[in-house]
């Protein structure tokens, strides 16, 4: 039984040619009976083939992208080759109808195979294919590409009763053309993705020769500028550390704390900051375990180690392993750990210590660094993150609440801590964050001495 396709002539002929392509792909000579070649349908099938190829390229390349004029020219070549094959058939058999036949049915078959390739690609992108099928996807693509060429040669040469040798020769010539076309133009697309070229990362200043030689001198001059303690008076010494170079919030937080201590608490000349930040590679010593240890040693040599007070402030990222990050790419810097910090503080011989840690999970330091003469304030509990260390921030949430707000107005460290704790809890709740649970732990001896020590730190209350 033969179906009858009705409708507008162009549409009817289009469906006839697609149905003929279905017959062709299963190697049936009945494909030629269904085929309705004409110049108008050849152009329609050419556009259809280009559209399917464009869809495949769009799926594989993605958006955004752009048309490729060179790709359009390249994709017209197979149709041209099939037109040449059609002219060979016309000249040999004298049937003008054969002139457009190979190109028309070839483009129709290519469109059907292209749709199958699009479906396969889309399924693979969405991980709908099994592992066994995914493994053979390249081979399936190759089969879908070569199948129509083999079917076209076999159907036409058998229908026209070509000798076997001539059939094989025709297949070799056509297959050779298509293989050469694939190899020569494998990178050509009808649609190519447009990728924004990111500028090459700027090398950090710290690896510049001038910075390498400047850093030891910067540290030495900063340490040499520290003023000695004043006899018969309790002096406070401030050491600030900004640990992670890739976020400026730690630099500004350390600088804010130092400026506050130098102005309100009169530590100018007895304060120092160590910063990992590319903008300060030529102006400030960087923060490393070595520079922290040398700074504490220098402080110790200037201080009355039994009477004066060290205020140590570290701000950086903290980890659940209870490490505070020191980083300045591409330098390989070891982090601050609780055991190392305790050791370097003990080695300095400084007795009275106020240590403020602005980092996630910084409460994990408390057990290792607490002594009878130490006050420890942390931005978070041992199992809690702290918040606000973002690229666009100038202070962390804890740093703003404690240093920039409470400590500017209050007249004791305890009152400043309690005020900042209240502010921080309100801010975290308003933003829908969990509680960071800052910690205050003070040794028994310092708890007794702190009120009198604070008299030399805070200005007289009004």
Compact summary:
This protein has 462 residues and is α/β, with parallel strands linked by helices. 53% of the residues lie in helices and 9% in strands.
Describe this protein with a few key phrases:
462 residues; alpha/beta; Rossmann fold; 2 domains; six-stranded mixed beta sheet; two-stranded antiparallel ribbon; 16 helices; 9% strand; disordered N terminus
**Overall strand count:** 8
Radius of gyration: 39 Å
Sheet with the most strands: spatial strand order: 4-3-5-6-7-8
| Structure annotation, total helices | 16
Major sheet details? 6 strands, mixed
The tally of domains stands at 2
Oligomer: single chain
* Beta-strand content: 5-15%
Counting helices, strands and paired strands, the structural category is alpha/beta
Low-confidence stretches: 1-6
What is the string of SSEs from the N terminus onward?
A: HHHEHHHHHEHEHEHEHEHEHHEH
Architecture (CATH level 2) name of the largest domain = 3-Layer(aba) Sandwich
Give the % helix. 40-55%
CATH topology of the largest domain: Rossmann fold
Overall outline: rod-shaped
Q: For the terminal residues, how far apart are their CA atoms? A: 108 Å
Question: Roughly what is the average pLDDT, rounded to an integer?
Answer: 88
- Using the coordinates above, name the CATH class of the largest domain: Alpha Beta
Task: Give a verbal description of the structure.
- With 462 residues, the protein is α/β, with parallel strands linked by helices.
- It has two domains: 9-193, no CATH class; 205-454, 3-Layer(aba) Sandwich (Rossmann fold).
- It is built from 16 helices and eight strands.
- The strands form two sheets. The protein has a six-stranded mixed beta sheet with strand order 4-3-5-6-7-8, sandwiched between helices. The chain has a two-stranded antiparallel sheet with strand order 1-2.
